[in-house]
Amino acid sequence: MNKNIDNFVPAEEPSKDQPITVLMIEAVGKCNAICGYCPRGQGLLGPETNTYITMDLLDKALDLASSGSNHAIYLHHRGEPFLHPKLDEIIRRVREKGFYTFLSTNLISATPDKVKKVLTAGINQIEMHYSAGLTRLPHEVLLKRIHEIRKLNWELRNFGCRLEMNFSLFGETREIIMEELSRHTYYDETLYVRWFEPHDWPSLEKIIDRGVDYRDCHWYKHKACAILSNGDIVICCLDQFSHSCRTNIKDIDRIDWESLADRRMCQGCTQHVEMNWLEEDAIDMPLWLTRKQEIDTWTA
Ligand SMILES: C[S@@+](CC[C@H](N)C(=O)[O-])C[C@H]1O[C@@H](n2cnc3c(N)ncnc32)[C@H](O)[C@@H]1O
Ligand code: SF4
Ligand code: SF4
């Protein structure tokens, strides 16, 4: 299924010897939060994108991923993974295929029962996107939830899953937020918080020429891509808009470079410089994951 045939010059393949790497397989396209700094939260995506991956499509995506250079697969992209009723089964299949599995959640649907299943299935990293949760739930509920997740991680995995809380500084300062958090019983200052300044992601909805060269991007250099929950292949985590989509995995048995060659959106992308996590966490084995493997009690 080729789209947007006109008006594009295919990007040159970085290296023929390097395999194509499927770094993300989106469990769910839909979301239940309304973050102002995310295209999904801003309502820029149509209802046709509210898809949930099927188990058949997941298996196909995992087969296509098996020749890549990554050791880990992320399960989020445009939506909230915990909305998938079979998230634990998805994680189990990814782990059985030999990949570590990471996801990011807004915490809204990450109830203790669901988290228990996900930890038992073998998730290796949960990023808890706290500022997203705040768009729907108050601090008390979110902080108690984090407390419960940490407790379950201790009981079920000997702290074998890495937990990170991340918080977007979107018009607020870190000091003001810290002061608010510290007033709540369940806030624990020993939890690692990653503060981030959101980039203007919604601005990528339209392709604007800002003179960015796609060859500087880690996604390009690693020949990495993402598979959305309907099977569409896109060139990176920022293409929620399917600008780059030329192929659906239902129609292919291997991913060729042509599927990743539409890089028109890259010319407007100023955030590719922040993409070194690709190799640090998912392509090279990070020290934190080696350490976690030494204590993790999870077995297949
Ligand atoms: C798009 S979300 C999808 C998964 C899930 N819904 C969530 O929010 O955790 C994935 C990650 O993107 C990050 N993110 C969202 N908007 C961002 C922005 N404008 N700039 C940088 N990171 C952003 C979030 O912190 C989150 O960890
Ligand atoms: S950042 Fe995550 S939680 Fe927020 S709207 Fe986007 S997909 Fe939903
Ligand atoms: S849109 Fe940005 S992050 Fe995505 S592949 Fe292009 S340059 Fe890289």
TrEMBL record:
Pfam families: Radical_SAM (PF04055). GO terms for molecular function: catalytic activity; iron-sulfur cluster binding; metal ion binding. Residues 29-146 form the Radical SAM core domain. InterPro entries: Aldolase_TIM, Radical_SAM_PqqE_MftC-like, rSAM, rSAM_sf. The keyword Iron applies. Keywords: Iron, Iron-sulfur, Metal-binding, S-adenosyl-L-methionine. This is Radical SAM protein.
